[in-house]
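thread from #wetlab-drylab

HS: before we spend reagent money on co-crystallization trials with zinc ion, can we at least see a predicted complex? here's what I'd submit
DV: go for it
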Amino acid sequence: MIRRSILRASQMCAAMLAVMALAGGAGAAQPLRVVATLSVFADLVKQVGGENVEVSTVASPRFNPHFVECKPSDVLKVKKADLLVHGGLDLEAWRGPLLDAAGNPDLFSGGKGELDLSVGIPLLEVPDRPLSRLMGDIHLYGNPHYWLNPENAKIMARAIAAKLSEIDPAHADAYQKRLADFLSRLDQKIAQWKQAAAPIRGKEAIAYHNEWPYLADFLGIKIEQFLESKPGIPPSPKHIGFLEEYIRSHNIRAIVQPTYFPRSASEELAKRTGAKVVTLCQNLGELPETKDYFSFIDYDVRQMVEALGGSSSE
Ligand SMILES: [Zn+2]
C-alpha cells in the first residue's frame, strides 16, 4: 500500500515535470538557446533569429579559429543548447571533444539540434586524395574559411533560417521575414563591395595562412602564396627566401594576415622587399570596428582596396 502510493506520487511528479517541460519548451516565449562555434556564425544566427534566439559563441575572435581551448563554461553552454551551429569540415578540430564533454545527444552529427554550415557551400581546394594531419596539414577536406565570400553568407543564412524554422515552427514566419531582410541588405552591399573592388581586379597579394581564397574569389584578386608552406606549418627560412624572390618578381605590394599570427616573418619580408603588412580580419569582432557581418566585410574590402589600389602592380 505504502509502496503503491509512493509509486503514484512519483508518477504524478513525472507528469508534472513533463507539463513543465512542455511549458518551457521551444514552442513557448523563451528564446532558443543557440551556441555558435565562431563569432561570424553567431552574428548570422542573430541576423536571422532576432529576438527569438539567444546566441553565444565558443571561440574568441581574437584567436586562430583552428586552435581553441574550450572552457568548462563552454561545455555547460553546449549541454544546455537547443542548437549548435558550426563550420563543419575540419576547421574546429576542438568541436568533437567539446561535444563529448557536454554529452547533449541532439547536438551530435545528424542530431535535430545540429547545423553544419558547410553543407551546400561550393568549397574550394578540395583535395583529390585523402590528406592526413600527420603531414601537418589542417585543411583536409577543402578550404574551410568560406564565410569570407558574401555569396556564401546567403547560403549560410538560408540554412540557418530553415533550421530555426524546423526546431521552432511557431516563429517560422518571423525567421523567413528576417532572412529576406538580411538577403536584401546583403545584395545591396555585395554590389557596393564589387564596385569598390573593381580597380584591384587581377591584382595579387600574399598571405600568412591560406584563409583568403573565398574573399579573393569574390574580389577577383589572387592570393596564392603563403608564409606557411602548408596550412599549419610555420614559415621556414628557405620558404621565406623563395617568397622574397616571388614578391620582387611579381611586384607584390601586400602581405595580408589577421591579428593573431606572429608578424615578425611578414615584417621582415616587407622590410626586405618594400611590400606592406596589411591586417585583414578573419573573424568577426577581431577588431572593434568589425561588429557585424556587414562591417566585417566592409573592413576587409576597404583594407584590400587600399593595399592593392593606386597605380598598377602587374
Ligand atoms: Zn585554415
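DV: The pocket of zinc ion is lined by residues 66, 138-139, 145, 209, 211, 231 (CB under 6 Å).
HS: ok that's useful, forwarding to the group
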